[in-house]
Amino acid sequence: LKPSEIARFVTARLEAGxxxxxxxxxxxxxxxxxxxxxxxxKMPTFLQEKLATSSxxxxxxxxxxxxxxxxxxxxxxxxxx
Length: 81
Description:
74% helix, mainly alpha
C-alpha cells in the first residue's frame, strides 16, 4: 500500500471510534506508527507529497518541525527537494 492509502485507512478507523492502540494492535504495528499516519491528513500538501519519496518517520519529523517553524521547513524542503 502507498503511504496515502495507509493514512486514509488509519484515519477512517480512528474516525470510526477506534483508539490508536487498538488500530496498532490489530495491524501488529507500534502505536507511534499509527500516530504518524494519523497526522498525514493534517500535514500541508508539500509534506504529504514527500511521502512518495521519503519515509513516514522523516516526513512526520518534518511536520513536527513545520508546526514550530513553517517558513524554515518549507524553504528547506524546497531547496533540498
